[in-house]
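Subject: Protein entry, chain in single-letter code together with its fold tokens

Area: Proteins and the way their chains fold up in space.

Attached in line: The record itself begins immediately under this heading.
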Amino acid sequence: MGYYPIYLEMIGRRCVVIGGGAVAERKVEGLLEASAAVTVISPTVTGRLTRWADERKICHAARSYSPGDIAGYELAFVATDESAINAAVYEEGKIRGVWVNAADDPAHCDFILPSVLRRGALAVAVSTAGKSPALSRSIREDLESHFSDDYGLLVELAAEVRDELQRRSLRPSYEAWRRALNGGVREHVRRGDLAQARGSLLKDLGATLCE
């Protein structure tokens, strides 16, 4: 496997999506959630894509792909079900230094998209290196029951406590964090008692609320 898992900072990153159907819509939705700057190139688009264009959340070029269309973009997503377009965009990306993702066509991808489970700032990504997107999705759905919604709160609490410890010049080890996060803090978070959870986490990391 030649894929290297990576999370990209997408705020303001210029992305082009070629295609206007349901698959393209899902790509655009994810890009908008990450605050990317999105242009869609397609003669026809879904109702949601039309609405996003009307609301100026995306730009829409109502035409088919032409060579040169990905110039000036950093990432290109192809969702047309036309292998010839996948190949053309991929080759243009090689020339222009633009990373290309072609839906369900790993041979014409510089990067692939995992199936992602999100709980607030927590993101759990599952990939089969493009071999079986259906299996990736199935595994992600299996994980949903384990990573409940309160994990989003746990992430925010851990970040708050980490900042507090840094202000006190305390640097607990990874093992200390592992033990603390596997302790009673999760039960406090599940019950919605965030104050108790914060105190418990600080105590287990060797700090107190009053220091």
